[in-house]
Write a structure and sequence with these properties.
alpha+beta; 4 domains; about 30% strand
C-alpha cells in the first residue's frame, strides 16, 4: 500500500514539473511568424448569367396568328420566318386602294380633257379680244375657267399620290404579317400560339426573345459600395454555378457601371463580366457566385491578422517603454530608406541619374542616423524628438497627417535634384510611387526579441482576410506577438 501511494505522489510531482516546464517554455506571449508568400485579394459578389445581346421580336400590326414556325431553343438565322399573321385584311385593303387609285386616275383624265377644252376656248377669246371682237369680260371669264381646270387637274393628281401612298402603307403591313428573325441566334422565349390574336395599338406586343450569340455571355454582378473602388476593367474573375458545382469558370471585368441601386439601405454597383462559353456549358439565367481578383501580391512579407489586432496590456506597455528608452525608434524612416532603391530600380535610370539618386539616398540615411543619435542623447536640436504615441493606443489621424506632411516635405527637399534629372514618364512614375509610399497605412507590430516585446511600425498592404502584407524593419521568420496568455498558464 505505501508503494502505491509513493507511485501516485511521484506521478503527480512529475505531472506538475512538466506542466511548469511547458508553461515556462511557452512564455507569457502567443506568437506568429512573419512569412514570405503570396496574397490574393478577391471581392465576392453574386449575379446572373445572360446573353451579351438579347433581341425582343414584336409585331408592328394587329391580327390573328396563323402559324408559329419556331419553338424554345430553336436556332435561327437572320431573315428566317418565325411566325405568320392572317394577311386577308391587308390584302382586301390593298384591293380597295388599287380601285381608289384607278378611280382617281379616271378623274384625272376627265380633268385633263376639260383642261384642254378650256385652254382652247381661252386661246380663241384671247385672240378675238386683241382684235376687239369680244368684250374684255369674256376674255377674263375664259382665263378664270382655265385656271379652275388646271387646279382640278392638280387635285386629281394629288388624289392619285395619296391613294398610292395609302396602298403602299398597306403593302408594308402585308409584309409585316410575316415575322422574321432580325439576327442569328437562339430562341430563348416564345410568347404566342397559333390562333392567338395580337393587338399592336399603343406598343408592339412581344412575341419572341432571341439570344444573339451564346458562345459569349455576360454576368452582371452587384458589388457593394465599400468594394467598388477596387474593381477595374480587365481584372480576372473566377466563378461557380450551382448547376456545375465541381467546375470553376473564368471571366474578365468589362465595365463598371455608374448606375447604383439601393436596396434595404445597401448600395451596390453593377459590374459587367464577359465569359467565354464556346463549349455551350453555361446557360442564360444561372445564378453565379463570383470572386473578382482585385490584387495579387507575390513573394511579399505577410503576417496573420491576429498580430495586427493585438493590443498590449499595461505590464507589456511598461516593457515597451523600457525598449523605446533604449533606442527603439526610427523604424518607419529606415523602412522608407529601404523602399526607395526598389522604386528607383523600376525607373531604369541612366548612370548619371543613378549617381544623383545614390547621393540623395546617402544624405537621407546620414540625416536619419544623426536624428536617431540626437534622440538617444536627449538632444532635440537635430530635427526634434520623434512624435511618439503611447504603446497600444490608436493612432491619432491628425497626428498621422502631420507626420506624413513633414515626411513629404523632407523627401521633396532631399530628392529635388534627383527628380529634376527625370524625364516626364519617369517623373510621373516616381511621384506616383512616392505618394503611395507616404500615404500607405501604418500599424504597430510587436516583435518578440530575446523574450521581450519590441514595437515596430509596419506599412500595411493587401489583405486576404487571414493574412496581411507588411513591410518595415523585420524579415521572414521573425516572431510577432498575437496575444498574451493568462498569468496562471504562464507559471
Amino acid at each position: 500500500m505505501p508503494a502505491i501511494v509513493i507511485a501516485v505522489l511521484a506521478a503527480g510531482a512529475l505531472w506538475w514539473w512538466q506542466g511548469k516546464r511547458s508553461g515556462s517554455d511557452e512564455g507569457a506571449f502567443r506568437t506568429v511568424q512573419i512569412e514570405q508568400g503570396d496574397i490574393r485579394v478577391a471581392i465576392s459578389a453574386t449575379g446572373t448569367l445572360s446573353a451579351i445581346s438579347t433581341v425582343t421580336v414584336g409585331s408592328q400590326i394587329s391580327g390573328q396568328v396563323t402559324e408559329v414556325l419556331v419553338d424554345f431553343n430553336s436556332p435561327v438565322k437572320k431573315g428566317d420566318v418565325l411566325a405568320r399573321i392572317d394577311p386577308s385584311t391587308y390584302r382586301a385593303q390593298i384591293a380597295q386602294g388599287d380601285a381608289a387609285i384607278a378611280s382617281a386616275q379616271a378623274v384625272l383624265r376627265q380633268a385633263e380633257a376639260n383642261l384642254r377644252n378650256v385652254r382652247a376656248d381661252f386661246s380663241r377669246k384671247n385672240e378675238l379680244g386683241a382684235q376687239q371682237l369680244v368684250s374684255r369680260s369674256d376674255v377674263d371669264s375664259a382665263r378664270a375657267s382655265l385656271e379652275q381646270a388646271e387646279a382640278q387637274v392638280n387635285v386629281a393628281r394629288a388624289q392619285i399620290r395619296q391613294q398610292t401612298a395609302n396602298t403602299q402603307t398597306t403593302r408594308l403591313n402585308l409584309e409585316r404579317t410575316v415575322i422574321r428573325s432580325p439576327v442569328d441566334g437562339v430562341v430563348l422565349m416564345r410568347k404566342i400560339e397559333p390562333g392567338q390574336t395580337v393587338a399592336a395599338s399603343l406598343q408592339a406586343p412581344e412575341l419572341f426573345t432571341i439570344a444573339e450569340d451564346l458562345s459569349k455571355m455576360k454576368i452582371e454582378l452587384g458589388v457593394d459600395e465599400s468594394d467598388i473602388g477596387q474593381v477595374k476593367a480587365g481584372q480576372g474573375v473566377s466563378f461557380t454555378v450551382d448547376a456545375f458545382p465541381n467546375r470553376q469558370f473564368r471571366g474578365v471585368v468589362e465595365q463598371v457601371r455608374l448606375a447604383a441601386t439601393t436596396s434595404n439601405n445597401v448600395v451596390t454597383y453593377p459590374v459587367v463580366v464577359t465569359v467565354d462559353n464556346s463549349d455551350g456549358t453555361l446557360l442564360p439565367g444561372l445564378t453565379v457566385n463570383a470572386e473578382i481578383e482585385v490584387s495579387k501580391r507575390e513573394g511579399v512579407l505577410k503576417v496573420a491578422n491576429a498580430a495586427l489586432r493585438y493590443k498590449p496590456s499595461e505590464a507589456t506597455q511598461a516593457l515597451l517603454g523600457e525598449a523605446a528608452a533604449s533606442g527603439g525608434s526610427g523604424n518607419a524612416r529606415r523602412g522608407m530608406s529601404e523602399k526607395l532603391p526598389k522604386i528607383a530600380a523600376g525607373l531604369r535610370l541612366q548612370p548619371a541619374q543613378q549617381q544623383v539618386f545614390d547621393e540623395a539616398l546617402a544624405a537621407m540615411r546620414a540625416a536619419q542616423a544623426e536624428r536617431q543619435g540626437a534622440t538617444r542623447s536627449g538632444n532635440g536640436s537635430a530635427g526634434g524628438p520623434p512624435m511618439m504615441m503611447r504603446s497600444g493606443s490608436a493612432p491619432d489621424p491628425a497626428m498621422m497627417a502631420q507626420i506624413r506632411a513633414r515626411m513629404r516635405e523632407r523627401m521633396q527637399r532631399q530628392f529635388a535634384q534627383f527628380r529634376s534629372t527625370l524625364d516626364d514618364e519617369q517623373r510621373a512614375q516616381w511621384d506616383s510611387a512616392m505618394d503611395a509610399l507616404l500615404n500607405s497605412n501604418r500599424a504597430p507590430l510587436y516583435l518578440l526579441v530575446d523574450g521581450r516585446p519590441r514595437r515596430v511600425m509596419a506599412r500595411i498592404g493587401a489583405s486576404d482576410g487571414s493574412s496581411t502584407e507588411i513591410s518595415g524593419d523585420f524579415r521572414a521568420g521573425d516572431a510577432v506577438i498575437s496575444g498574451e496568455r493568462a498569468a496562471s498558464s504562464a507559471r
